[in-house]
Amino acid sequence: MKTVILCGGMGTRMREETEFRPKPLVEIGENPIVWHIMKTYSSFGFKDFILCVGYKGEMIKQYFMEMCWRNNDFTLHTGKDSNIHYYTDNNDDWNVTIVDTGPKTLTAGRISQIKKYIDGESFMLTYGDGLSNVNITELIEYHKKCGKIATITGVNPISPFGVVETQGGLAKGFKEKPILDDIINGGFMVLNADVFSYIPKEDCAFEQQPLHKLASDGQLAVYKHSGFWTAIDTYKDVENVNNLWKTGDTPWKLWK
Length: 256
Description:
Elements: E1 2-7, H1 15-18, E2 27-28, E3 31-32, H2 33-42, E4 48-53, H3 57-71, E5 73-77, E6 83-87, E7 95-100, H4 107-112, H5 115-118, E8 123-127, E9 130-132, H6 136-146, E10 150-155, E11 163-167, E12 170-175, E13 184-185, E14 189-191, H7 209-216, E15 220-224, E16 229-231, H8 235-247
Parallel strand pairs: 1-4, 1-8, 4-7, 10-15
Antiparallel strand pairs: 2-3, 5-6, 8-14, 9-16, 10-13, 10-14, 11-12
C-alpha cells in the first residue's frame, strides 16, 4: 500500500523557517520532518511513498536526489565505468515518487493529481507536518473492518492556552494547556480509490467538501488514537519537537 504525503503548502505560520525552505524540510535533529514521517511508516513495512510537492518543491526533489551521498560515506570510482559505493547500514529501501502538484493548489487538487500513481488501490494519506506514534497496522485493520471509503485518525488536541477552573464567579484553580475532549483529524488516513469520486473538478481543500460529503454519506470512519500526536505549525512547535529530540523523549520514533 502506498503512502501519500502532502508536502506542497507554503507554511505561512512558520515564516522564520519556510521563507527559505518548504515546511517538510524543516529539521528535527539532523533530518527533515518528512524523513521522520517516512521513518514512521517504514517501521511498519510501508516503504512506497508519493510526495505531493508545490511551494519550493524543487528543494524536496533535490533533498531526495542527494540523500545518499549527504548521509553516508562513499567511494566514487571515476572513468568509463564510473560508480559509487556507499558505506551505510541504512535499510530503508524506499521508493519515492515526487509529483509537482503546483505551488498554490489546495489539498484536494493535489490528491487528484496522484490518481494515476495509485492504480485503483487503497492508499494512505498524511500531512507533511504531523508526528505521531499511531499504530499504522491497527489503523489499516480498522479501516478494512469498517468497510468505509475513508478512515481518519481522530486525536484529542492539547489546548494552546491554560484553562481557569471557576466556581461561583471565583477562580478555583488552573489547568495548564489541558487535553481537549473534542476530536480533530490528525491525518494518518486510509482511503479507498473511490475517494477520487468525491473530489470535485474545482480546486478545494480535501478537509472541506470531500470529507464533509464522505461524512454525510456515512463513508467516513474514525480511528481514535490516544497516544502521542503533534502538528508542527509554528516556529515554537519546531523548537518543542527539537527539544524532545535532544532529550531523547521521542514517542514518534518507532524505528531502531
